[in-house]
């Protein structure tokens, strides 16, 4: 008899949530993790540490530039080691939380690299010690993702860093070149810019945060530019000379042409992440990958091998912790014979800079490309009472609704706390809300979320405060 109903490989937000849900459903569950702590990329080197540094650096910037005009006099002093310790304590608290939840739910844990040793067998190979084999009815692969590297540019995690090294710089670099204008890079670039770095962003495409709505992306770049970031769009970094005291970064136009050399103290390479499948033994048991190296699954998270499932960053879809979590829940429910499901049309996306960018649903570009007839309602935070009094008026909310049915198709916002405010429209979209439903929902005054209501009113041309 198999020792387990479910064995999960990987304890990131996909894996640990799947394990907890499986245990809640009465399935005997094990987790295999190769890192010393649980929680995966998200808790150890991703969402959680980056948000700790974003929070601390935002406070520092506010103390330096925002307090005086509110009548608060302070003389802030930066202590980088202490700020890193603050971040590390936050991470430790979170990863211990996962440990506690595993124990509470009676989930067995194994330390080592997990691989498929047969259809119903997982081999655990510890860093030191003998491998052992676990008999299991089902396997959930939740091994996440790893950084994408650039050819010819070696990451030493000290001067040429990935997001992992950028979470741990021992001092503020005077000049930082950020390769890639995506979410992770701009968040970490914002941290170090607030702490004093001159940050230059080199982006291959003609816009930053390219998957977001175009209007939001333009406004975001303008605001980050006002904050002091410099952008080189349609450009690529082709080499980093590390031989001298200053790094010499070669930047070429994306379409070819004359190169220029930028000097920097730190180069942050943040050009994306790739699915991580190394060491799993997928070939041996016949688990298929797609053309992007992701584990192929059907809409029940089943791979090409019976009893083997996959979720999170290692399969298709946005590489987001909450997407991985929701897939973990749905996958465990499907294994338990329930009707687990993820609505991919209502997965919010947030950039945790200041101001925040948040979106859910489809962009204007996507609607145009699909020939969908839509209406737009927009409302700027300059017209929101709370934003005005707080002097946080950068940004706007944009609601896209079907021209015939008024159903909300997408909401895009840039502004203070947008990451929190996106939850209400995500819930609305889950329930198939019309713009009018949001517009007629009473919103507390004075709140920034009144901006969402006004943008929904603006879909029918009847915003009140504009
Ligand atoms: P992971 O979290 O990557 O976990 C995979 C786990 O599997 C790891 O613990 C790994 O050690 C383990 N593993 C791998 N192979 C094996 C093996 N063979 N045997 C045993 N164990 C194995 N997402 C958001 O939604 N919000 C954010 O704010 C956000 N910020 C981010 C900031 C940064 C700097 C980064 C890098 C990422 C960020 N992300 C964010 C993305 C988020 O971290 C990922 O989408 C999420 O962690 C994916 O979860 P997962 O469970 O699929 O995999």
Quickly give the structural class.
Answer: alpha/beta
State which percent range the strand residues make up: 15-25%
CATH homologous superfamily of the largest domain, by name?
A: FAD/NAD(P)-binding domain
Q: How many domain regions?
A: 3
Name the CATH class of the largest domain.
Alpha Beta
- CATH names the topology of the largest domain as FAD/NAD(P)-binding domain
Gyration radius (Cα, Å) is 24 Å
Known CATH architecture of the largest domain: 3-Layer(bba) Sandwich
Q: How confident overall, as mean pLDDT?
A: 97
N-end to C-end Cα span:
68 Å
**Would you identify the regions where 5 or more consecutive residues have pLDDT less than 50?**
none
Q: Which bin fits the share of residues in helices?
A: 25-40%
Q: Helical region count?
A: 14
Distinct ligands, ions and cofactors found in the model: flavin-adenine dinucleotide
Shape: globular
- How many β-strands, per DSSP? 22
Please give a structural write-up.
There is one protein chain. α3 (47-65) packs antiparallel against α4 (80-104) and α3 (47-65) runs parallel beside α6. The protein has three domains: 4-145 and 274-342, FAD/NAD(P)-binding domain (3-Layer(bba) Sandwich), CATH 3.50.50.60; 160-271, FAD/NAD(P)-binding domain; 346-459, Enolase-like, domain 1, CATH 3.30.390.30. The strands form five sheets. Strands 1, 2, 3, 4, 5, 6 and 17 form a seven-stranded mixed beta sheet that branches. The protein has helices at 13-24, 40-45, 47-65, 80-104, 163-166, 183-195, 214-227, 282-285, 321-335, 364-369, 385-390, 418-430, 435-439, 450-459; strands spanning 4-9, 29-33, 108-111, 113-118, 121-125, 132-141, 145-147, 160-161, 175-179, 198-202, 230-232, 235-241, 247-253, 260-264, 266-269, 273-275, 308-310, 349-351, 356-361, 374-380, 396-402, 408-415. By secondary structure, it is α/β, with parallel strands linked by helices. Helices cover 33% and strands 24% of the residues. The chain is built from 14 helices and 22 strands. Bound molecules: flavin-adenine dinucleotide. Flavin-adenine dinucleotide binds next to α1, β2, α2, α3 and β4. Flavin-adenine dinucleotide is lined by residues 9-15, 32-35, 40-42, 46-47, 50, 113-114, 142-145, 163, 184, 276, 279-280, 312-313, 319-322, 324, 352.
